[in-house]
Amino acid sequence: MITSSEYRKRLSKMRRNVYMNGQLIDRDHPRLEGAVNVLAKTYDMVEDPEFKEFEEIITAKSHLTGEKINRFCHVHRSVADLLAKQRMTRLTCHQVGGCIARCMGCDAINANYVISYEVDQAFGTEYHKRFVNWLRKFQENDCTGCAAQTDVKGNRPWRPHEQLDPDLYVRVVETKSDGIVIRGAKVHNSVAPCVEWILVLPTRRLTKEEGPWAVSCAVPAADDGVRLIVSAAAYDTSKELGMPGPYGSADSLTIFDDVFVPWERVFLNGEYEFGGQLALMFALYHRHSYTGCKPAMTDVLTGATALMAECNGIEREPHVREKLVELICTSELCYGTGVAAAINARRSGSGTYVPDVLYCNVSRRHAGLNIYHEFDILADIAGGMPATLPREADWLSPETRPFLEKYMKRNPAVSIEDIHRAFRWVQAISCSELAGVMQYAGVHGGGSPRMEQIAIAGSYNVEQVKNIAKRLAGIPVGGKYTFDRLGVTPRGAEADQ
Ligand SMILES: Cc1cc2nc3c(=O)[nH]c(=O)nc-3n(C[C@H](O)[C@H](O)[C@H](O)COP(=O)(O)OP(=O)(O)OC[C@H]3O[C@@H](n4cnc5c(N)ncnc54)[C@H](O)[C@@H]3O)c2cc1C
After folding, report:
1. Domains in the chain, ordered, with CATH?
2. Which of 2, 12, 299, 476 could form a disulfide with 6 if both were Cys (CB 3.0 to 4.6 A apart)?
3. Does residue 148 line the site of ligand 1, with CB under 6 A?
């Protein structure tokens, strides 16, 4: 495994292909610092003695090499692995106060691992062998990856082959003896400018006219023909007050301008039947990751609400406790459902474990439904100060500081420095550019709410519950009582055999 300084050094050596605010920038540009710091944390935590007790959570033994690797590079070979991934996600998100960002690469790896095997079984191709060879090197080098799934999509109701411009979904435009050439653009690629590899995946089910759009491959993030047009946001935290960070996000509109991909990095090419399966498999793993990160985000907001209540001297008020309980119910329901998704995982043909579809989607949907409500609770208890807090320079200026110290006092049990720190941080997480990004991520990250509804409806047998109602109403029902969800049996250690 490498250190965070080695990770940063690798980034600094990459070809310049990141554009921001009309400029071509280096990967160590200050606007990317927040997102790079987040990923660096995943390297630091492995070495940090404070997290020694979590070593088995944040690292894993590679089933390919037998070596210890960062769990973000791991393929889930058991129920225990899925549970550890979920715990790792919650634990790491706590350290940066938001998205840990390395999960997208991990989820794309797992989805490719499962589906490349299935495609080979169906068509006698050799995608799985190629993918395993690529993954071995990815693990050995402790790399970072991102997932480029979401196509720009053009006019939403039209299919890829119906668009006025066929490049609105990434597609293969040329097949050569040594590989393929892809063209198009993916959007909202989290941390694309801060990783070494972009994993390109289909975004939706594909029809038989849509073979060219059925493509999965690994592309070096600074490869020829790749351009990253990036928008970044970071906490405006105070270094003077010793606050950690800054932490933040960087999302890319990623252009693939006739990018050559050699066969050894092509994991799906034309098998349209598997385009949708790969898209759904990535979404499923990603929604399972959300059962770790969304509870973590709620934990952060719950902590912030409790801290605001303390600063304001209202922590014993009944309405504060009631709202804290509401937040806890959201985090623990989402987390508990993720645990259920892991415990009820199935072993795929490739030997990799796949979490339960219904539990993953219910958890993700519940988190998405609550995200704005959680910020509403925090704003309610904080009062207006996070929105109108005087700037850092006014706190540091000898002319204005005495006034701030006098007039910002609240609960006498909390020092004025800590009052300032608390409001500065709550401003950063709830009333900033990054807060807006996190709110949208809370709704759309991992797929739009509609896609979650479709997944939930598709994996739940409504006829069975209608029959339960009919029986109770005395309406004759042919056949015996059945209810599939009772058949979702926790397998735990047994499933790991
Ligand atoms: C902060 C953030 C980070 C993200 N990170 C990543 C990432 O790392 N990698 C990645 O691949 N993606 C990422 N995403 C993308 C995310 O998965 C998408 O935002 C999500 O799938 C919705 O797609 P969209 O943004 O194109 O919205 P749209 O699909 O345009 O959705 C807008 C509305 O249109 C509806 N709609 C869309 N198509 C149809 C249709 N055919 N018929 C009827 N209604 C339709 C939707 O249901 C929704 O209500 C990220 C998103 C956000 C906000």
Report:
1. 4-274 (2.40.110.10), 282-458 (1.20.140.10), 462-495 (no CATH)
2. 2
3. yes
Q: Which residue has the CA at smallest separation from atom 42 of ligand 1?
A: 157
Residues of the chain whose pLDDT is less than 50?
492-497
Distance of CA 315 from the midpoint of ligand 1 (Å): 39
| Residue 10 CB less than 6 A away from ligand 1 | no
Q: Could you tell me how far CA 53 lies from the centroid of its own chain?
A: 24
- In 3-state terms, what secondary structure has residue 348? coil
Q: Which of 153, 444, 451, 453 to probe ligand 1 with, by most ligand atoms within 8 A of CB? A: 444
In this prediction, residue 497 carries a pLDDT of 42
Number of Cβ atoms within 10 Å of the Cβ of 37: 21
Q: What is the pTM of this model?
A: 0.96
| pLDDT for position 344 | 94
What's the CA gap between 431 and 20, in Å, rounded? 23
- Alpha carbon of 150 to ligand 1 centroid (Å): 7
Q: Whose CA is nearest to atom 28 of ligand 1?
A: 448
Cβ distance 185 to 256 under 8 Å? yes
Q: What single string gives the DSSP state of each residue in 229-289? A: EEEEEE----TTTT-----EEEEEEEEEEEEEEEGGGEEEES-GGGHHHHHHHHHHHHHHH
Residue nearest to atom 34 of ligand 1 (CA): 156
Please state the separation of Cα 364 from the chain's center in Å.
11
| pLDDT at residue 479, as a whole number | 87
Check residue 490 and give its pLDDT.
57
Report CA(444)–ligand 1 centroid distance (Å). 6
Question: Counting atoms of ligand 1 from 1, which one is nearest the CA of 153?
Answer: 26
Q: What is the pLDDT of residue 493?
A: 45
The secondary element (H helix, E strand) that includes residue 440 is: helix 433-444
